[in-house]
Amino acid sequence: MNLKDKLTTGFFELENKGELHIDDSIHPIRTKAFEAFENKGFPTKKEEEWKYTPLKAIINKDYEITNSYEAAVELNDVKKYFIQDVDTYKIVFINGVYSSFLSETTHSGIDVCLLSSAIKKPKYKLILDHYFNKIAKNNESLTHLNTAFTQQGAFIHIPKNTVVSKPIQIIYFSLNGNQFLQPRNLVVVDENSHVQILERHQTIDDSSNFTNSVTEIFAAKRAIVDYNKIQNDTEKASLIDQTFVQQKDNSIVSVNTFSFGGKFTRNNLEFYQEGERLESNLNGFSLLGNKQYVDNHTVVYHNQPNCESHELYKGIYADKATGVFNGKVIVHQKAQLTNAFQQNNSILIGDKSTIYAKPQLEIFADDVKCSHGCTIGQLDETALFYMQQRGIPKKEAHALLLYAFGNDVIEKIKFPKLKERITKLMAKKLGVELGF
Amino acid sequence: MSKPILEVKDLHAGIENNEILKGINLTIKPGEVHAIMGPNGSGKSTLSSVIAGNETYDVIKGDILFEGESILDLSPEERAHKGIFMSFQYPVEIPGVTTTNFIKAAINAKRKSQGLEDLPAKDMLKMIKEKSELLEMDRKFLSRSLNQGFSGGEKKRNEIFQMAMLEPKLAILDETDSGLDIDALKIVANGVNKLKNKDNAVLVITHYQRLLDYIVPDFVHVLHNGKIIKSGGKELAHELEEKGYDWLK
Questions:
Q1: Residue A222: count of CB within 10 angstroms of its CB
Q2: Residue B243: band (very low, low, confident or very high) from pLDDT cuts 50, 70, 90
């Protein structure tokens, strides 16, 4: 049975068992989404947005889909995947099941909890009615698929005038066999509030998992949201990450994506600017080798005047690694005085790595400042010689230059412990010690 | 008589099939300052790059000895560890790595090659303070990313600062005067002169005589079309300034 058929059977099985909470308000959304997925099926290379991205090999695998089963993990085995030495909230899942043992949630002042419990509780009905699936409804069948199966994920609601002092870590662990996981996160940040979030998907054994994740982020007036993604999964793991952001007046939302691992990663990141004088920041850094694959598809909808977007994606691809960058900026006719900047730089190491880069600007307003820059290059030999001349061995010099190349993206991280962690991950990946 | 620091013997080198250096002979002894002058395209920068081990160039024939041993098979970093320093005409910018951290990495790499432990932080700081004062450097440059956004003069001063930190036996100054105003030139030259002693040597590569008013050479060599066509004392530099290079060709 292919994955689509399996999902169809699975969907009705879950419906019958009542596991999709048939009587809640989300049920009609789910049914509609499933129909949309059923009609369209998985995307193929014939679709423009999936032209360079081969899903076939991934969807042809056999996955466990219906029953996320619990598995025990020892804290010591997974500790290293957390940002430590700093107080944080944690929402942790193992094979899609909430782990209260590893988590630290709260309802005091703010809500940092589970989507499943928010769906069940009447007091969250208003928020869910107002926000759930309001922006994750593009024409992508994978988004519909996630919506159809929405069961579990993180629910974060920050009421107005609240600065959340502790960062929030959302971590999805998986183990014991090949699973198809579909986490769903909802982040609502009200007026004048500020929150930092870190998301990670991590396989802790040699299972070949496939994760299809959807996150919706809503930033009200003057809200500040820093959302960071560490993608450093095993070389058997596949991830499709779809993140949707809606912003109101004067808000600032930054999404930083660090792709260091995984077998296959597709990031769809969409920003909807629905207010004035707001700022959207999209930053990405990829460092991949072997046969790893990363595809960053971003869209910024400039729908209102006087807004900014800043996009910086950098990538280093070695061995047979492949990168795709597709950055779309759409400036609506009424979005006058837009400032939209996009930059994409890639370094290819060796002659078997590949990058497909496509900046796409669609501008319908006449008084705007939009720019895009795209470079593909190799390591600067002169710079390498310069460092070697100062006595730094070639391997370290090489690493230092790559580090320097990615530095302006790393500098965007506002959470010091995370910056430290990313630097260490880079050093590890480059096989050197970077004492900086 | 002391043993030479550098001996270049019948050196032929170039890029692929293009021979740029066509038989260079040069001997530098401890305590000496040599200047190589020559018009654009004569091979000056190629010579410094080949001595420092730039792999872009192929050595076709001849040898380079450092303290009596051939260094042709050594990597640029191994040559640096032995005590060869080259100040670049266009120093490279490295974002995200401060000058202090870069020089620490360089010094500790050298120490590691000698089987020594990292230099204790306290000693490193003391040395940095001393050497940056010698070059009248604004300390804030040390905590900025290496050469990023530095002016031409600041970059060159930073090169000499690194030289001061690394204490090389042979310092090659490749067009160090280019892009320097007279005040910066004096500071840089003054730094070089203070670092000069009876055990080390300096090779100045320059197009103009200007720098040689401040770093006074013992020997001046004229490079033309890949060969040294004339050698002499410091007065040769003045003669070149007056007459140009044409009378030698």
A1: 20
A2: confident
Give me the helices (H) in A242-355, please.
Answer: none
A307 domain-assigned: no
Clarify whether residues A268 and A383 are in a common domain: no
**Contacts of residue B201, Cβ cutoff 8 Å, sequence gap at least 6:** B5, B6, B28, B29, B30, B31, B32, B33, B34, B169, B170, B171
The rounded distance, in Å, linking the Cα atoms of A384 and A136 is 45
Contact (CB, 8 A) for A265 and A294:
yes
Pull the structure tokens for residue B36.
């190589």
- What is the rounded CA–CA span in Å between residue B48 and residue B43? 9
Task: Decide which of A207, A242, A275 is a domain's last residue.
Answer: A275
- For chain A, say whether B143 makes contact (Cβ under 8 Å): no
Residue A395 near chain B (CB below 8 Å): no
Give the domain range for residue A162. 3-275
Q: What is the ipTM of this complex?
A: 0.95
Is A326 among the domain residues? no
User: At the topology level of CATH, where does B6-248 sit?
Assistant: Rossmann fold (3.40.50)
Q: What is the distance between the alpha carbons of residues B141 and B157, in angstroms, rounded to a whole number?
A: 10
| Residue A12: band (very low, low, confident or very high) from pLDDT cuts 50, 70, 90 | confident
pLDDT of residue B245: 78
Q: What is the pLDDT of residues A221-275, one digit of tens each?
A: 999 999 999 999 999 999 999 999 999 999 999 999 999 999 999 999 999 999 9
| Beta-ladder partners of B221 | B36, B231
- Given A275, A302, A324, the domain boundary residue is A275
pLDDT in tens, A281-315: 999 999 999 999 999 999 999 999 999 999 999 99
Q: Give A401's contacts in chain B (Cβ within 8 Å).
A: 94
Strands (E), A204-249: 210-219, 224-231, 238-247
B185: three-class secondary structure by DSSP? helix
In total, how many domains does chain A have? 2
Q: Report DSSP letters for A388-401, one per residue.
A: HHTT--HHHHHHHH
Give the start-to-end residue ranges of the domains of chain B.
Answer: 6-248
Pair (A23, A165) in one structural domain = yes
Nearest to B106 among A385, A392, A406 (CB): A392
For residue A345, is it within any domain?
Answer: no
CA distance B233 to chain A (A): 30
Mean pLDDT of chain A: 92
A147's enclosing H/E stretch is: helix A141-149
Distance from CA of A139 to the nearest CA of B (A): 40
